[in-house]
Amino acid sequence: IGSWQPSMACRVQLCRVLRTVGLVLLYYVFSIGITFYNKWLMKDFHYPLFMTLVHLAINFCLSALTRRAIQSWTGKPRIILSWRHYLFKVAPTAFATTLDIGLSNWSFLFITISLYTMTKSSAVLFILFFSLVFKLEEPNPFLILVVLLISSGLFMFTFESTQFNLEGFIMVLLASFLGGIRWTLTQVLMQKAELGLQNPIDTMYHLQPLMFLGLFPLFLYNEGLSLSMSEKLFRVTELSPFLSSLFKLSIGGLLAFGLGFSEFLLVSRTSSLTLSISGIFKEICTLLLAAYLMGDKMSVLNWLGFAVCLCGISLHVGLKTYYSKSKQLSRKGPELKMPLLRLNGDEGENSAADDDDEEQEVFMH
Where exactly are the transmembrane stretches of this chain (predicted)? Predict the structure, then answer.
């Protein structure tokens, strides 16, 4: 019996490791896949805002179907917010999110994947800034070092870059700024127990309509007239190009939903720390693939800047882990746990969602 128990423990541990690796790989497939797919699609389909609107519509439909499936499985009704909470609590998060995604997709018309990936990494700075503003983060001296490392790394990466485009760079930088607002507001939104949006599927369901409405005026101003005269969609002479465009846009929508759902699975079955660390290695994989598949040119200084930026992000993740552990050790009495991504009614099977590393924080890499 004594030899059997360690054997069973090893098997359980091995299953957990294999499950984590599988979830990380699934996250990589959707995250890296949608980046390269959107860049590839933008070569022939120059309507990134319309593409984003299609993705939002698909995400809303799929999240509604998922909510219905969860409700049928658990037998418990899903949360539906009142109009007052919907307009005053959800709307700011929705508008920041849709502008972040819209500008990110728009930038693919101008910049390479490597420059996009590197610039998007600066979102950590803005998330950190707004976390301090909303008092979700406690200031400490090491945060200055994090800011310096990421900022200097970004400067080194863009310095004398042969494939640098100012317009696209500003778009991604603005998207990163909005991303800081987006993820901070999302954290606040999901932490409000009275709203009941702890499950990201419910959050996605409530966000998509307002995101669609927020981006639609910008789409009309920039792409409406041009798209209405495009032979790819509204002035088609043959049915096959129209169906081909819809099919390509639908694939992007499925990838976008798969990305959100894979993040949900990864965090709920492991921890938010796992998602953060996975995001660091994902960026390395993205740059290597961009250099190999897309021919992105990067100098030694660019790679060095990327390494410095990754050091800053890694330091931030390490500090978050250290301070979250310290807080939990110093707490006394019963603690109200509100896992970020726990399904309503799932208290037994999803016990992994209560990992120590999983405080109500959203990481976006």
Answer: 21-40, 46-65, 109-134, 141-159, 165-185, 205-222, 242-261, 273-294, 300-323
For the whole prediction, is pTM greater than 0.85?
no
The mean pLDDT of 218-230, rounded to a whole number, is 85
Q: DSSP characters for 124-144? A: HHHHHHHHHHTTSS---THHH
Q: Looking at the predicted structure, is the pLDDT value of residue 269 above 80?
A: no
Considering the chain, what percentage of its residues have pLDDT values greater than 70?
79
CA distance 140 to 291: 37
The one-letter code for the residue type at 47 is Y
**Separation of alpha carbons 114 and 284, rounded Å:** 10
The interaxial angle of helices 4-41 and 272-293, nearest 10 deg, is 50
Does the pLDDT value for residue 343 go beyond 90?
Answer: no
pLDDT for residue 250: 92
Determine the pLDDT at residue 193. 67
Tokens at residue 148, please? 């310096």
pLDDT score at 242 = 79
What's the alpha-carbon Rg for the chain, to the nearest Å? 21
Confidence of residue 209 (pLDDT cuts 50, 70, 90): very high
Q: Are 55 and 309 in contact (CB under 8 A)?
A: no
- The encoded tokens of residue 333 equal 């009495």
d(CA 163, CA 290): 13
Q: If you ran DSSP here, which 8-state letter would residue 236 be given?
A: -
Q: Which tokens is 106 given?
A: 């728009």
Helix (H, G, I), strand (E, B) or coil at 345: coil
**Amino acid present at 18:** L
- Amino acid identity of 308? V
Check if the beta carbon of residue 255 is closer than 8 Å to that of residue 30.
Answer: yes
Q: How many CB atoms lie within 10 A of CB 74?
A: 13
Give the whole-angstrom CA distance, residue 280 versus residue 218: 32
Q: What is the largest CA-CA distance in the chain?
A: 75
pLDDT at 283 over 70: yes
Contact present, 136 and 121 (Cβ < 8 Å) = no
Under 8 Å between Cβ of 55 and 256: yes
